[in-house]
Amino acid sequence: MAVKSMTGYGYHEQQYPDFSVSVEIKSYNSRFLELLVNLPPYFSSLEPAIRGYLGTWCRRGKVEITVRFKEHNAAFSVSVNRAAVKAYREALEVLGEIFQSDEKPSLGLVLGLEGVLGIEKKRDDTGYWQQVESVLSVALAQFDAARDREGKRTEEDILSHLTLLEASVKTVTSYAPTLEVLIQENLRNRFMELLRTSGLVFPEGGTSTRPGFTQVDCTSLDNRILAETAVLLMKYTISEELARLSAHLAEFRAEMERNPSPGKKLDFLCQEINREVNTIGSKAPLLEVSRVVVDMKDALENIREQLRNVE
């Protein structure tokens, strides 16, 4: 299943005999679904229908939709507000007395006064829904196609970094036997150095016979090294982390394939993957593993950056 981007744009305009309708849709990144509907005040009753229509297309992101109407031959009625005219006339008469003027106000002046004329356009807002829906569906198709194109590029980039992570897990796993050998060698070298600095030098026979010192048995030393190695391996083993990391990566890939809106789940999986990678980096003493961990962190950061735009 293809990944969709949270950013997209669509626009469509349609001319009708008495009016024209245009719909513009644009979206941005957001953790949740935010719908902003901009309509002319006289068509506010269409907002619930538009919101419901958008909700079937978008699951996450900040989506702004603007619907514009241009009327060409709209029917309307004009009425005279007699109370307003009377109030204006009385006020003008008072002004005439104050300024001692007999000049009568012109009809143009009166008509320009607020509230004198009432103009009402006869609109059937519910009847417009069919035309609005038609324009809206075309704009949404453009909008969704833009999100698909961006989502495809994003998916390809994420999968390339995911493949790198999967290959890195195999590389780190291949160093697991080397890690055990390294711990054994380091412990043996430390024991030998300690014995040399203490004056205990093993002859070929396997024990030290130097006067004044207790004899040291090589077999006992080997057993001690093996015991200490087991303790350190319990502390530094990364097998559990590698197992969990492999499981998280497999779940990540499966989520991208089956979920049409995987953004939130993938972001959570990235947190879990990051935790395991950090633990591996802190526990494994091999320089080769440290280098691979750096590459894994870089790939994971690129994935997290891309996920900010995934629905």
Description:
α1 links the parallel β3 (33-38) and β4 (61-71). This protein starts with 7 loop residues before the first strand and ends with a helix. α5 (176-197) packs across α6. It is elongated. The strands form 2 sheets. It has a 4-stranded mixed beta sheet with strand order 1-2-4-3. A two-stranded antiparallel sheet has the order 5-6. Among the domains are: 76-121, no CATH class; 152-307. It is of the alpha+beta class and 311 residues long. The model is unreliable at 202-215 (pLDDT under 50). The protein has 9 helices and 6 strands, in the order βββαββααβαααααα. It has helices at 47-55, 82-99, 107-111, 129-174, 176-197, 218-236, 239-258, 263-283, 287-307; strands spanning 8-15, 19-28, 33-38, 61-71, 76-80, 117-121.
Order of helices and strands: EEEHEEHHEHHHHHH
Sheet bearing the most strands, described? 4 strands, mixed
What level of helicity do the residues show? 55-70%
Would you report the number of β strands?
6
- Uncertain parts: 202-215
Q: What's the total helix number?
A: 9
Alpha carbon gyration radius: 39 Å
Please state how the strands of the largest beta sheet are arranged side by side.
Answer: 1-2-4-3
Quick one: overall form?
elongated
The residue-averaged pLDDT reads 82
Distance between the termini: 13 Å
- In terms of DSSP E residues, the strand content is 5-15%
Global structural class: alpha+beta
